[in-house]
Amino acid sequence: MFLWGTATASYQIEGAVSEDGRGVSVWDTFAGEPGRVRDGHTGEVACDHYHRWPEDVELMAGLGVNSYRFSVAWPRVQPTGSGPVNQAGLDFYDRLVDALCARDIVPAVTLFHWDLPQELEDRGGWLDRDTAHRFAEYAAVVADRLADRVPMWITLNEPFVHMVFGYALGTHAPGRTLLLDALPVAHHQLLGHGLATAALRERGAGRVLITNNCTPVRAASADPADVAAAHAYDTLHNRLFNDPVLLGKYPDMSAYGVRLDCVRDGDLDLISAPLDGLGINYYNPTRIAAPSGEGLPFTDAGITGYPTTAFGWPVVPDGLRELLTGLKARYGDALPPVYVTENGCSQHDEPGPDGTVDDRARIDYLDGHIAALDRARAEGVDVRGYYVWSLLDNFEWAEGYHQRFGLVHVDFATGRRTPKASYHWLRERLAERTGADAGPREP
């Protein structure tokens, strides 16, 4: 069946950061440092999903989705990133998976959505090759507990974004500012993916994927300098994380003075082990111009002429079709089935006088992107799932609680959940589509 779902991430919704044996994550540390997160917000409580998860499962059931993508918090399972397992943390995810299965909602587990245990970061984090091996051990622990009921596993979420914002630019945890010297983070995350894939397979896990954030890249002009810069950006954003997984090799980056000296014999064999699908997160295309002196071989020139989200991101629905058909053209038979594992928009959503939340802009956004998804499938791209980001308004990283992506409004003072107009619209849309349009059948 085609998977129509919604998605969340552990640090963004769970809260309970110091309960039941959970260890400290890099996001706990980062959010606790003055000036790191807007208005000093933290994920200490977030949506309180750790305590209110039964209510959230009922919201999913009411929405009519048949899958839920969520992430496991590594420090909740292994407080220091290695060694002893926190059984109370595993028990939480065990209860959640059982409840999803009871509601016929397919659990799709992401193992890493950026909340690295702080103790591993203190040893070097993803700059250190050993973190990849610790990640595989953690993957094995989670699979030992959940693989009998979880048919879909995602190793990493958006390794490009974690590398760039966390290690190159410092706007996300752990807050390092290494620019291109952050590139070993790319390889060590991908090596962790390869090692974790092997560990998952050994434990009978079903489908194994990686989720990459991808963007169609457009040159700002026909000027050769802009075209070359766009190629550089496409290489570093898209190909650096897709080529090793799908083709077993890194793209040539020598023109940018980039070398990955950390790659060892056999690494790419592990990284390119066959996958059951490729997760793709899409938000917008990117327009690139020649570098302007920031130490990078490109400049983001911005996209104009389109409506924007509250984040200021351009709303370009056909960019999703462009991205998916472009992946098929680039990788051909090497491209496995694709799952759109995130797609959504932030808006300034607040309840009106009658208590309802009218988020018409989000309805238009989703309607346009689902139509673009249909066009990509009609053009021959094997897409097998679509997940709306996000089920709930949540802690939006460095923006704190200022950006609302949810189908469900959350009052962060009380935790009260209010389904928005987009929730009701999507429920009706899914009721219309699920029977007649199931998409390509799962093997």
UniProtKB/TrEMBL annotation:
Residues given in the record as substrate binding sites: 12, 113, 157, 283, 389, 396-397
Against InterPro entries, the record matches this protein to: GH, GH_1_N_CS, Glyco_hydro_1, Glyco_hydro_1_beta-glucosidase
Note the Gene3D superfamilies from the entry: Glycosidases
Name the source organism: Streptosporangium sandarakinum
Q: Name one GO cellular component term.
A: cytosol
Q: Does the keyword S-adenosyl-L-methionine apply?
A: no
Tell me the GO molecular function terms.
beta-glucosidase activity
Give the top-rank taxon of the lineage listed in the UniProt record for this protein.
Bacteria
Is Nucleotide-binding tagged as a keyword?
A: no
State the UniProt keywords alphabetically: Carbohydrate metabolism, Cellulose degradation, Glycosidase, Hydrolase, Polysaccharide degradation
Catalytic activity, as annotated: Hydrolysis of terminal, non-reducing beta-D-glucosyl residues with release of beta-D-glucose
Name the Pfam families on file.
Glyco_hydro_1
- Name the enzyme group at the top EC level: hydrolase
GO terms, biological process = cellulose catabolic process
**Family (UniProt):** Belongs to the glycosyl hydrolase 1 family.
Active-site residues (renumbered): 158, 342
Name of the protein? Beta-glucosidase
**What EC number(s) is this enzyme filed under?**
3.2.1.21
